[in-house]
Write a structure and sequence with these properties.
It is built from 14 helices and 2 strands. The chain has 411 residues and is an all-alpha fold. A two-stranded antiparallel sheet has the order 1-2. A hairpin with a 3-residue loop joins strand 1 and strand 2. Helix 5 packs antiparallel against helix 6 and helix 13 crosses helix 14.
Length: 411
């Protein structure tokens, strides 16, 4: 089978994913040591790396399979998928952030919900094309979105924010009432800032009084600690954040060389949340810029596909999926360099694999399914134009020949 038939869709996106997965394999192998010895005393770093390799290969298989499906089928599955995602999120709230399945292991339902909600919102925007500017339609979209976001929020604030922003941007692109769109956005920003400020204040009170403050939700103290640490850094402490900064400083422009990381040996999350810092330590700022450009190229190709897709559902799905991948990458990189507080977001297609890696790959597969359909239709249109042009040229040639024959007979 030709590679073009196996790897359907946008070839540039395939190349970007290939490069990101290669970087992932190299950097995870380089940085997973302390995590293996700290949390899996019975497992070696090699065994965990092999698990990551299996996830990466499984992601390739998933993308190839999904890219061969007519993307319109995802619209029909979106409603059922939405309610399944809600049930899984409720179960996760009851038993913690994770759901464990025998043999397969544990997974985060929020990663499934992230992909399904984008497809669901795109479906609604496509079906309600004529009523999309009405306030009622906008409120209906908000209710469905906030149901998922509200269930994700108590255990994963940053993921809830990313899901909401991606879906909210889709609403804007889909033509919802712009007046209400801006108002809700401003209200949301004020609410988030106020909540984080309260969390910061309560954590500060805990430090000053030595007494834990009453929390509105379970992980509020964790978020307060993260914001407090960001505003009040302690350079002398060996925190994950400080070691990430030291890794970046050691990397300089060209890096210390692949496999020569020092600070990854001291970070339990070097293979995951702070893998971008390890990339810069080993590959320098040049490597960091290359990774940033790869994500930027991926997002640019998604927006280009959305523009070229004639189906409203496909265009909005690609725009939403590309946005959530790009935003998550920007958040992870911003945390590594100290621009944002710690969020716990992984670096898409690079951080140590699991359900987050696999389901994000499913999202990329949907993008490639839309791309395959776009390119197939464009190829058919070109073939029709060439055929029509050929027929026109043939008729012109025949007419010219007949004219020349008539002229000869007249002479």
């Amino acid at each position: 089978m030709k590679l073009s038939k196996l790897f359907r869709g946008d070839k540039v996106i395939w190349v970007v994913f290939l490069l990101l997965s290669i970087i992932s394999l190299v950097e995870v192998y380089s940085s997973i040591g302390l995590y293996a010895y700290s949390f899996f005393s019975a497992k070696s770093p090699t065994s965990l790396f092999l698990r990551h390799l299996i996830i990466v290969v499984a992601t390739y298989v998933a993308i190839i399979f999904i890219s061969r499906v007519n993307y319109r089928a995802f619209s029909r599955f979106a409603v059922l998928g939405y309610w399944i995602a809600l049930v899984l999120l409720v179960v996760a709230m009851a038993f913690g952030r994770w759901i464990r399945i025998p043999v397969i292991g544990q997974f985060q339902p929020s990663e499934i919900a992230k992909v399904i909600l984008i497809v669901f919102v795109a479906r609604m925007l496509a079906l309600k094309k004529e009523q999309v500017g009405e306030v009622g339609t906008f409120l209906q979209l908000m209710v469905y979105t906030l149901l998922v976001v509200g269930l994700v929020f108590p255990t994963n604030f940053s993921t809830a924010a990313l899901i909401f922003l991606a879906c909210y941007l889709m609403m804007y692109l889909g033509g919802v009432n712009r007046k209400w769109w801006w108002r809700i956005l401003l209200i949301g920003l004020v609410a988030v800032v106020a909540f984080l400020a309260i969390s910061y204040y309560r954590y500060e009170r805990t430090l000053s009084t030595g007494q834990a403050q009453e929390q509105m939700i379970e992980r509020q103290a964790t978020w307060g600690h993260r914001v407090y640490s960001w505003f009040n850094p302690q350079p002398d402490e060996l925190t994950q954040e400080n070691m990430a900064r030291m890794a970046i400083a050691r990397g300089g422009v060209l890096g210390a060389g692949v496999g020569n990381t020092v600070h990854a040996r001291l970070m339990t999350q070097a293979h995951n949340d702070f893998i971008y810092a390890v990339i810069i330590e080993e590959m320098g700022m040049v490597g960091g810029i290359v990774v940033f450009l790869l994500y930027s190229i991926l997002y640019f190709r998604c927006i280009r596909l959305a523009w070229r897709c004639k189906g409203r559902f496909g265009a909005l799905t690609v725009a939403g999926m590309g946005t959530v991948i790009y935003l998550q990458a920007l958040v992870n990189m911003s945390v590594a360099v100290g621009v944002l507080p710690v969020t716990g977001q992984t670096l898409p297609f690079i951080s140590y694999g699991g359900t987050a890696y696999l389901f994000m790959g499913c999202g990329l597969g949907i993008i490639q399914a839309v791309a395959a359909d776009v390119y197939r239709k464009e190829s058919e249109e070109r073939a029709q134009l060439e055929s029509a042009s050929s027929l026109h040229d043939g008729d012109t040639t025949q007419a010219r020949s007949n004219h020349e024959a008539d002229t000869t007979q007249t002479e």
